[in-house]
Amino acid sequence: MAPQTSEPDELFDLRNAFYIGNFQQCINEAQKLKPTNPDLKLEKDAIMFRSYVAHRKYGVVIGEIHGASPPELLAVKTLAEYMANPDRRDSIVRNLDQKMSGNLDISNVTLLIVAATVYSHEQNYEAALRILHQSDTLACAALTLQIYLKIDRLDLAKKELKKMQDIDDDAMLTQLGTAWFNIAVGGEKLQEAYYIFQELCDKHASTPLLLNGQAACFIAQGKYEEAESALQEALEKDSNNADTLINMISLSQHLGKPPEVTNRYLRDRKSVV
After folding, report:
1. Which DSSP state fits 123?
2. Residue 261 has what pLDDT?
């Protein structure tokens, strides 16, 4: 059951837009919203800057967040610097190691998510999971679930999904987590995953994240033409989306496309930081 709250959640729509990958909407809405609660204002700013990172507009984040900014925003700046500077990633990770081994404020969920994201990029999944396990928030559980799926631990992913369902079965992250898990399980669960993505598209917006989810279902079902249609729509929305390009590479091979087509997507993928 979803938890009952007496007051409306001012950031409900903003969070959901972020979770489904509608990053431009997040940026636009965040600039309009003026929460009276300081904590909500800080969360709003963190979501906005994380959306800029997702849009690969790292310079905006690095330029606007400064030394006097709150720790939550400084965490997002760390992520932007990591993504923008491949040649500096080793030193950024070393600094992050020091920060995470010190007196850690586990209430700073943004820092936990950022650190786990960086460690996942480094394929240091043990460190990422160790950080995420310190929080019982849905956001940390969702990233934990994704990591378990990435390392093929369906047993642990199933337990994590159950935990998410117990926290809030109706939450956007729980719905997405269910779809991701169903894709990993395969078989009849693929159609259930597709329906989740389609429902979210109908209710909110068709984003590259949701369209890639649908394409993954189609590819696993051998419905390659349907997958191509979904991925073409995703490319129209964001021609540099890494997941779309990766799925296009896989699909091109399934469809027997000429090598130059696959190579084009490979070049595009390599050009995306």
Report:
1. T
2. 64
* C-alpha distances in Å from residue 172, one per residue of 168, 236, 257: 9, 24, 36
* Rounded (5°) CA angle 20-26-32: 150
Contact 266, 249 (CB under 8 A): yes
Percent of the chain's residues with pLDDT above 90? 83
Q: Kindly state the average pLDDT of the residues 182-195.
A: 97
Running DSSP on this structure, what letter comes out for residue 103? S
- pLDDT at 145 (0 to 100): 98
DSSP-derived secondary structure letter, 241? -
Nearest in space to 120 (alpha carbons), one of 65, 177, 82: 82
Query: In angstroms, rounded to a whole number, what is the distance separating the alpha carbons of residues 139 and 88?
Result: 28
Alpha-carbon span 92 to 255, nearest angstrom: 41
Q: How far apart are CA 220 and CA 117, in angstroms?
A: 26
Q: Are 219 and 239 in contact (CB under 8 A)?
A: no
Torsion of CA 34, 40, 41, 43, to 10 degrees: -130
What pTM was estimated for this model as a whole? 0.91
Q: How sure is the predictor about 32, in pLDDT bands with cuts at 50, 70 and 90? A: very high
Asked if residue 1 has pLDDT above 50, the reply is: no
Contacts of 78 (CB under 8 A, 6+ apart): 92, 95, 96, 114, 118
Asked if 132 contacts 143 with a C-beta cutoff of 8 angstroms, the reply is yes
In whole angstroms, give the CA distance from residue 138 to residue 182.
18
Residues constituting the chain: 273
